[in-house]
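User: Sequence in, structure out. Go.
Assistant: Echoing your sequence, followed by the structure tokens.
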Amino acid sequence: MSHDAAPEPLARLADRTPIVYGALGAVFHLERLAAEDEARLDEVNDLVWGWIGPALAHVSLSCAERPEPVRRAHLDYIATHCANLGVAPVPGGGPEDQKISAHLVRLGRDEMSVVCSGARDPFEASPYSYRFWAEIGDLPEGSDARSLPAHAVLHLTVPETWPLADFHARICAIAAKLRLRWGAAGYTFSDCEAQNSQAPAAAIYAHARRYWGYDVAEYVRLTEAFYRRIRTVSWLTWLGPSMLDELRARGGLGAPRLSTWVASGDGVLIQAGGAPERGDVNRRQVPPAYREVDALVRPLRAASGADLPFFAPWDEGSIERWLRRFEVASGP
């Protein structure tokens, strides 16, 4: 585990507080959480803690008033969330009573988050981070309302200078433990919104519109939308079995030339070249392997900015241009 000094941030506040770092990272969108995922997430937490635990300093929990010094035990909130999605039967109640009970339970379970950061000051950003975010979706048609449908995301970042071979091996080991819907790993951002959400969002907006290889990692209040469609491709892109089946049904899986496709559990891992690329649209540097992967999985990739509330200054038009950046000639 490297203990090198933190790199220069992408953005600071006027008082020099770092609020955004570029990072190597992965964002994993999971299949709807189920009881079986508790053990899987516990194993992932062990892998993450063994990797970057010593670099993490504090944790912010959606169920706590203020940040705390982080311990391995805090990650148990992630795994045990799977056990908090059941809805007890209403004694003597009918289907409508059960649905009302489920909606009430949902109020206490929705928007659950665990955010671990390597910053010694909880109001600063760090390139080291580990995050979990879960939202409760609408009850499926015909549901008995005995369990809540949770859409969840795991998001991990390390400095951009982390050795690529080690990053690749560790991220793939983590992915192999999860029931993935889809995932993306490569260049991304690690920010801190504790003081100000607008300043980090503006910095990410400016950077991502120029450097197309960065995933903006927007998923808060978007997990259901990005359960149905993937947000972006990256250096490493995973399709879980359900997404892979949908791609086949939609006539995808063309013949790759610049990317490699290998089995990953019942899904597939797509690697766009030997290393992640930043791209720079101002210099007309658009990673060709990323464009290829985007074209091959395009039936699954979100293409409209409507009803996707990224943080301002993103608007519907700029969101759509970013989503479709690898299929157009001009920049977002």
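User: And one key feature?
Assistant: The chain has nine helices and eleven strands.
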